[in-house]
Amino acid sequence: MPLLYAMIIGLALYLLKPFKIVGKKQSKVAQGAMLVFIGPLIAKLAISSGQSIHIILQVGPALLLQELGNLGTIFLALPVALLLGFKRETIGMTSSICREPNLGIIIDKYGFDSDEARGVLTVFVIGTMIGTIFISFLVSIIASVLPLHPYAMAMACGIGSASMNAAAVSPLVHMYPALATNIEAFAGCSNLISFCFGIYECILLSIPLTEFLYKHLEPIIGREYEKDDETKEEVQKWN
């Protein structure tokens, strides 16, 4: 919630008229400051994943292999994004679930003022606002329709985001109260592994795979569009 409040207040200050408290100059300064602020996050993620590496080695293969299922979303989301007219933004938007670890990785790799960073930030903002509601609703439907074991669904709830993990587990706990403790344990362990192992997966697998698919699919299904004069002038001012 603090993140959501900060985004709303920042947007309000940027759009506020006639008293312009936050303008383009302040926004440009904030871009550089963001790189400084993201540094401790990257360090924290590195320390957390390093401390938890023994957990990754000790758990069974199922918890690790289910993490590879995240790669499947790239094959679905990237073509759709290209058909909608997105360009390099698709790499940031579709290479991960676009939460804090992935945000740090994309910004560190491509820079804050890149198309990839704008893509991951877009999904990050949308996920912050409606992500928990969506995933809770989705899990409720899947648990009611698909004949999957509750533990399998619990492992799928661990996507590397604490808020989304809690929102996803809640319907399962209410549907299977007798298994609540085990469901929470599987989901928590899976979430921790997704948080730690997901960093390496994003760097070593997801981003290279997304880059590869973008390189080959964009010339085929990518949409070309002309920017109007006003948009071109706006881009030139920012650059």
Automatic annotation (TrEMBL):
Keyword Transport listed: no
Entries under InterPro entries matching the protein: DUF3100
Keyword field: Membrane, Transmembrane, Transmembrane helix
Residue intervals passing through the bilayer: 6-23, 35-56, 68-86, 119-145, 151-173, 185-207
Database matches in Pfam families: DUF3100
Protein name: DUF3100 domain-containing protein
Organism (species): Methanobrevibacter olleyae
Lineage: Archaea, Methanobacteriati, Methanobacteriota, Methanomada group, Methanobacteria
